[in-house]
Write a structure and sequence with these properties.
By secondary structure, this protein is mainly alpha-helical. It contains five helices and three strands. It has a three-stranded parallel beta sheet with strand order 2-1-3, covered by helices on one side. The longest helix has 55 residues. The radius of gyration is 29 Å and the shape is rod-shaped.
């Protein structure tokens, strides 16, 4: 019974929205587009994020690279010496290499997860700065709507692209 009431409300809301469409369509709206891919590619914050993350993770990355090289060198040495080793030496060395490879994989996965999480955190900050810049440009230009260029399959010549203005605002 309660589901029926919810459905009735949804249908009613939908019908009211449909009745308002002609009024909205006839209203003169000022619309512009932005290209977020272009803005993010040109944004100085992108390089700042890259440098910040590089500094933050360079120690762990170089440690992982050293561990990987040592593991690979030890695997190569094992492959070259396996024929001259006793059965117990081979078994012990194989177990050690497998354990080290497993430990390395866990460390590598943790590194990737941490790096991805931190990248998302930093990009969220850039996204917030982008949102503030978009809102400011929209208000300054008197735009009713700013739409991402990727969401628009066709754009007439009268539609303005304000991506450079947003980029300039972000750079302030």
């Amino acid at each position: 019974m309660q589901l029926w009431r919810v459905l009735k409300k949804l249908v009613f809301t939908f019908l009211i929205s449909l009745m308002m469409l002609p009024a909205l369509a006839s209203a003169e709206m000022k619309v512009a587009v932005i290209d977020t891919n272009y803005i993010m590619a040109k944004s100085p914050e992108r390089d700042t994020v890259r440098q910040t993350l590089s500094k933050e993770f360079e120690g762990r990355k170089s440690q992982l690279e050293r561990e990987f090289k040592k593991l690979e060198d030890d695997r190569t040495a094992y492959m070259n010496n396996a024929k001259t080793m006793s059965e117990s030496q081979r078994t012990t060395t194989e177990r050690d290499l497998k354990k080290r490879a497993s430990d390395f994989k866990l460390k590598e996965d943790a590194y990737k997860e941490d790096f991805q999480r931190r990248t998302q955190e930093e990009m969220r900050k850039v996204g917030q700065k982008l949102q503030v810049a978009v809102e400011k440009i929209a208000k300054q230009g008197g735009y009713d709507m700013l739409v991402d260029r990727r969401a628009v399959p066709y754009m007439g010549p009268k539609v303005t692209d304000v991506s450079d203005k947003v980029l300039q605002e972000m750079s302030k």
